[in-house]
Amino acid sequence: MVCIKQVPATTAPKRYTADLRLDRAAAEAVINPLDEYAIEQALRLQESGAIESVGFLSMGPEQAGEALRRALAMGGDDATLVTDPDLGGADAWATARVLAAALDKLAPDVSLMGMASDDARGSLVPGAVAALRGMPLLSYGSELRIDGSVARVRRLTADGFDVVEAPLPVVASVTDQVGEPRYASLKGIMAAKRKPMETWSLADIGLSADDLHGAALSRVVEARKPEAKPPTERVEGVSADEAVTRIADWLAARKLI
Amino acid sequence: MSSDIAFLAEFANGAPTRAALELAAGAEELAGGSGGSAVALAYGPGAAGAATLGAAGASSAVVLGDDAAPAITHAAAAAATLRDLAPLALLAPATPNGRDLAGALVGLLGLPAFGPVRAVRIEGGTVRTEQATLQGTVITVSEPTEGAGRPAIVLVLPSTFTPREGGSGTAAVTSASAAAGPLGAARIVESHPAEAAVANLEEASIIVAGGRGVGSADGFAPLHELAAALGGAVGASRAAADAGWVPYQLQIGQTGKVVKPALYVGCGISGAIQHRVGMQTAESVLAINKDPDAPIGEFADLFVVGDLFAIVPKLTAEVRRRKGR
């Protein structure tokens, strides 16, 4: 089961609503780019016969169903959307709680995620979901392998890599080193329309708004633009020697040499 | 309930990591303002010697484990410790290990989480954090909601705090004992260190980074020369790491390292948003690129349009000359 998040497109203009939440309706939405690598990893495992089926799970507003359809166009078998008016502004903890409850119900051998989301970038959800579900985490895999009842990831270290292993079922996350995500083919896009997609409310996964403390334990109290930097100084159309002198003067003025 | 600030102190090869020393200084600074003290939660090879963190700012240290197990396997011990201490905040390094362990604590204890942040303050007994979101286009200030549990979990970017220098003192060490539980089922079964030493970019105050424009592994040779002349380290964009020209440990950006050097020199790097989020807090940014329209030209402090292979070797010589060697 691959967990995906719909996020504003990297290059789309974004703004916050009056209550300082991201205005998700205002920006073009895409599958979180780093989740596409998790999708790719899952589909490769399915193609190699290491796993039987691939499903997709997302939590978000109703339009997050579009992200699930796009994932289904890449491949896989079915999808589940958890959507509920009480989930707006969910933080890492509430998101993990909801995903964990949905995954408990779906009970996959591997709950797979991308290494981070493009918008929040905390990377806390995989660890939180593993803790809530009471199962091991194999994180930041540059490759995930399933061998019978054991899962393994290759994981970058400070100066090399480790192989980390755990018995199924596991929660896992993979990096952008697993291989470039495939594009959806026209055939895939047509097939996706006929693949089953379920929509669950909080009640369907046994949670209530009270369980989630208003969806968040944290709140944004201020949102502002970063301070504008001084304009870029450009050196253009000069010889290499002249450019070098200009750079060295600039470094010296900043006491960097 | 206390005004204490706890922090995750990862050890490697028998010594505290740079991140542990930075967070020790940060925890001491934050706790000092509200009458609390800094408490280390130490793990990893060498953590049994956490008393040395006293010189870095910690008043006490709780050892979660001294082995090379994945960080998240210490979550149960960390959770038990935090339940007892109820500190105001737990500072965690925004590294893969720090995020795994912090995430597990969020799940186990139901805690508010923040970050990765570039500033933390305690205001009137409340934790306030400052975070760049949406690829750095918005800065948000956040705090726990009323009634949220303690501690606030705060992921802290490298170089947010500066390690204490020449400190002395010994932290009072205790150890936590809690069964690892199901999170403990992940184990490292193979370890493959690199054949050659790999620089830790997060410790470098000057970084010379190369991208697609460097063209090959050999193309990095002049960048290494310049880095040596400047007293810095070599980094790279994802394109260069993907091409195999440098190891992935040198990748800067969204899926690599986040760095905050005094000087960042980008050579043949276009400056895509995914790279930018890894280096945009550098104090000074110099870019050399033959493409006058490269996005890096929009946010560099000095943008030189030209051939890096003509400029970089001459720049190395000039830097050496001006430094008098």
Topology of this structure?
The complex is a heterodimer of chains A (about 260) and B (about 325).
Chain A: E1 2-4, E2 6-8, E3 29-31, H1 33-47, E4 55-59, H2 64-74, E5 78-82, H3 92-106, E6 110-114, H4 125-133, E7 137-147, E8 150-156, E9 160-167, E10 170-174, H5 186-192, E11 197-200, E12 218-224, E13 233-235, H6 240-253
Parallel strand pairs in A: 1-4, 4-5, 5-11, 6-10, 7-10
Antiparallel strand pairs in A: 2-3, 7-8, 8-9
Chain B: E1 5-12, E2 15-16, H1 18-32, E3 38-43, E4 60-65, H2 75-85, E5 89-93, H3 96-109, E6 113-117, E7 119-123, E8 126-133, E9 138-144, E10 152-156, E11 172-175, E12 187-193, E13 206-210, H4 221-230, E14 233-236, H5 238-242, E15 263-267, H6 273-279, E16 284-289, E17 302-305, H7 308-323
Helix pairs in contact in B: 2-3, 4-7
Strand order of the largest sheet of chain A: 6-10-7-8-9
Q: What is the percentage of strand-forming residues of chain A?
A: 25-35%
Number of strands of chain A: 13
Q: Roughly what is the average pLDDT of chain B, rounded to an integer?
A: 94
- Count of helices of chain A? 6
Task: Summarize, please.
The complex is a heterodimer of chains A (about 260) and B (about 325). With about 260 residues, chain A is an alpha/beta fold. Chain A is about 30% helix and about 25% strand.
Keywords:
heterodimer, A: 257 residues, alpha/beta, 5-stranded mixed beta sheet, 4-stranded parallel beta sheet, 6 helices, 13 strands, 27% strand, B: 325 residues, 8-stranded mixed beta sheet, 5-stranded parallel beta sheet, 7 helices, 17 strands, 24% helix
